[in-house]
Specification:
elongated; single chain; mainly alpha; about 130 residues
Length: about 130
C-alpha cells in the first residue's frame, strides 16, 4: 500500500469520529504519514508551502530536517481546537484525493517521453557506425 492510499484510508476513517481526543490522535497519524512521505512531498520546500497554506510558519532552518518539522507540528496540533484540526484535515483531503488525478497525468506524460527516448535510442543503435 502506498503512502497516498494509506492517507486516504486514514482520512475516510476519521470522518466518523466525534470525540475530540480520538480525532486529535487520528490527526497525528494523518499528519505524520503526510509529512514523512517522500512520495507526497519529495522536497522539504513542498512541506513549507503546504504549512503556509494552513497558516503555520517556521523559520527556514526548521525545513532542513523533516524530523524537526514533525516535532514542531506535534506541538502545534496539541494546542489546536477541533475546528482547526478539521480545517487541516480538509486541506490534506484535497492533497490526497486530487493528487491521484495529477499523478496519472504525470505517469502518462512520463510514459510518452520514455517511449520517445526508446525510439531515438533504437535509431541510434541501429545506425551506429563501427569504431573499428
Amino acid at each position: 500500500m502506498t503512502d497516498l492510499e494509506l492517507l486516504r484510508v486514514l482520512l475516510v476513517n476519521t470522518k466518523s469520529i466525534r470525540d475530540e481526543h480520538t480525532y486529535r490522535a487520528h490527526t497525528y497519524g494523518i499528519i505524520m504519514t503526510l509529512l514523512l512521505s517522500k512520495e507526497i512531498f519529495r522536497n522539504n520546500k513542498d512541506i513549507q508551502s503546504f504549512l503556509e497554506e494552513n497558516h503555520i510558519s517556521f523559520k527556514p532552518y526548521v525545513f532542513h530536517s523533516r524530523t524537526q518539522v514533525v516535532g514542531r507540528i506535534c506541538r502545534i496540533i496539541e494546542s489546536f481546537d477541533i475546528n482547526k484540526l478539521k480545517q487541516i484535515n480538509n486541506s490534506i483531503n484535497k492533497i490526497a484525493f486530487s493528487s491521484n488525478e495529477t499523478q496519472s497525468k504525470k505517469d502518462h506524460s512520463n510514459k510518452k517521453l520514455k517511449n520517445d527516448e526508446n525510439y531515438f535510442d533504437s535509431l541510434l543503435d541501429q545506425f551506429e557506425r563501427n569504431k573499428s
